[in-house]
Amino acid sequence: MQTFLGGYCVARSLDDGFLRGQTAAGLLWLVCAAAAVLLGGPVIRGVFAQLPHLTEPLRDALVRRSVAHALHRAATGGPAGDPAAVSRLTSQTEIARDSFAGLVLAARSFVFVAAGAVAGLVALAPQFLLVVLPPLVLGIVLFTASLLPMARAQHRYLDADEAVGRRAQATRAALRDTVACGAQEQTAEANRRAVEEAAAAQRAMARWAAVRTLCVATAGQAPVLLLLAATPWLLREGVGAGAVVGAFTYVLQALLPAVHTLMTVLGTAGARLFVILDRLTQPLPGQPPAPAQRAALRPAPDDLGTRPGHTTPGTPDGPATRAGRAPALELLGVRAAWHPAAPAVLDDLDLTVEEGLHLAVVGPSGIGKSTLLHVAAGLLTPRQGEVRLLGRPVADRHPHHRAALRVLVPQEPYVFTGTLRDNLRYLRPDASRPDVDATVAALGIGPLADRLGGLDRELDPQTLSLGERQLIGVARAHLSTARLLLLDEATCHLDPAAEAVAERALRERPGALVVVAHRLSSALRADRVLVLDGTRAHFGTHTELLARCALYRDLVGHWNDART
Ligand SMILES: Nc1ncnc2c1ncn2[C@@H]1O[C@H](COP(=O)(O)OP(=O)(O)OP(=O)(O)O)[C@@H](O)[C@H]1O
């Protein structure tokens, strides 16, 4: 009634009042129009009073659903913390409620305004409908057709945006391993793809926003222009000037704002509501974590090179390597320091580790054993000299190939939430079941697998002891295809028997093994021992070194004392 009276009273005030010189009648009609606006106030108030009856049940249902899902997930052994649950419970349900309220208000307003305006236009002159209705209907049909793709674009954008967040988090968490595996470029490439997808999704949203603007223009602005263009014809048809002004009042003051509001609210709040309801009603319990999250932490299969003894086309091993002649590792006159201003930790060090050799590196604390492994792995560039990996300078090798050829197992290996099998296949995701089983048997991981409920049961890294983590780290190296394994006190938390089993298993696999030994028993098992002594080094068998290296004798003596 408010809309109807708004245009109708204006038309009458002109046609029956002011244009006929009857000012009093004109003013009376305008008073009627003003009264209609005032009478609309209580109606709007009533609408807001009723609104919660629609929106609160929706919010309650969403909250109940979120809580039920979170509890179900926790009770059925899913990941202990579900960070998304809080967001679903609070902000997402609030957004859903607000969006729904906005939609209800906009739709209500449009329906009543459109009905009042159409009734008013018919009452003034039915010819107005010929001018106003076609663009209005066309705009609304176009807009309705664009709603679904618009919601999909919004969905795509949210997914892409979340993927960027997840990748950033995963990259940060796996930074150390990424560097250790030489997977920086691969990680950067995957991150770049995620960012580009988010940007593309945002551009798609912008295109749909342009379509929405076009629809608003068609449904809201085109009737104004058409009405202007049709005015001479309408006047010739006998329509009064006041009625034309009344029609403009309907279009400009009622239809245009209502269409604009409806389309804006549907395009923004509607799409948001669609996406959030879609998320909140998804089957959350028992879902496995998003694969992208873990894929980000593993090298891709093409990072992994080949089984020892085979050479894939494209693997940049020189001919000497294929023939098995190139040493696994060579250090030629290496001088290494952690900072240009820092004293050298290694100085003029020559070392050759042939394929199949088991080398133990020993020396006092802080002497440079870990530094040596960093240099060997290509993670610390020597200030002088050269490091060669399988016959080629390590610096020349692409990080992917470097990662495929050598593995550095740290003292505290990274174990991620996932199955034990996936953890073991971390460095070789395509490892077959028999290969995994062989590693499990060789490393004696059976009891750990049993305790965790099998190889395919998801484990919680926080429940693992340091020794169990180390066992997983060493098993990864065993399962990998790398030709050079570098263990940096990687078995120090294992008991001596388990350490012996692990070292024997690693030694029996093809390739060379360099172990920074925590216990001197490692040196006894090794083919050769390297004793670091300041910037000097001694190299030989256990027996040879006992005979000619005082520091080694000291170390063995201290170790024997400590044991007894
Ligand atoms: N990341 C690093 N940045 C700077 N300096 C380092 C770094 N790692 C080691 N150093 C320094 O290099 C020297 C050799 O340390 P390194 O860890 O290689 O000795 P280590 O023989 O492995 O000792 P430990 O047996 O105690 O582990 C030390 O002076 C140490 O402070």
UniProtKB/TrEMBL annotation:
What subcellular locations does the record give?
Answer: Cell membrane
Topology class, membrane: Multi-pass membrane protein
Region of interest (Disordered), residue spans: 285-323
State which residue ranges cross the membrane: 27-48, 100-122, 128-148, 213-235
A GO term, aspect molecular function: ATPase-coupled lipid transmembrane transporter activity
Composition skew (Low complexity), residue ranges: 306-323
Q: Which UniProt keywords apply?
A: ATP-binding, Membrane, Nucleotide-binding, Transmembrane, Transmembrane helix
Q: Which GO terms describe its cellular component?
A: plasma membrane
- Its main subcellular localisation, reduced to a broad class, is membrane
Name of the protein this chain belongs to: ABC transporter ATP-binding protein
Does Cell inner membrane count among this protein's keywords?
no
Q: Which domain of life is it from?
A: Bacteria
Cite the ABC transmembrane type-1 domain residue spans from the record. 86-257
InterPro entries, sorted = AAA+_ATPase (IPR003593), ABC1_TM_dom (IPR011527), ABC1_TM_sf (IPR036640), ABC_transporter-like_ATP-bd (IPR003439), P-loop_NTPase (IPR027417), Type_1_exporter (IPR039421)
Instruction: Using the record's annotation, list all stretches that form the ABC transporter domain.
Output: 329-558
Record-linked SUPFAM superfamilies: ABC transporter transmembrane region, P-loop containing nucleoside triphosphate hydrolases
